[in-house]
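Contributing new complexes? Match this layout with zinc ion.
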Amino acid sequence: MKYCPGCEEEFTDSITVCRECDCELISEQQWGALQAKRKVEDEEVFVRVAVAGDRFEADVMKDALEKESMPVLVRSFQETSFDGIFVPQKGFAVIEVPEQFKDRAIAVLDSLAPVPYDT
Ligand SMILES: [Zn+2]
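Output block (do not edit by hand):
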């Protein structure tokens, strides 16, 4: 089965795009992760596990954690500085996961070597 992240309908595997909302459909596994994420965002306490230096680093960290099926929140400093009062000392964003994922998340992030492109 595939699922539409927009209208939450189920589709057969032969369909790739939801006709209702023109959304690309996601796999059952991604759907499960998305559901888990939506659920924990309502209920869970997120804790900070890392500070990303820039948007690229934030994306790398988020991808690595999501690959482990962890819900991830990226709270950008830039989004909280709209009032002009909050000036970030350093970093681009904080990476947060639900408290029960904290140790696993830190282990995953620790294993993220700075990846040089060796093709
Ligand atoms: Zn849809």
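Reviewers usually confirm one structural detail per submission. For this one: The two ends are 35 Å apart (CA to CA).
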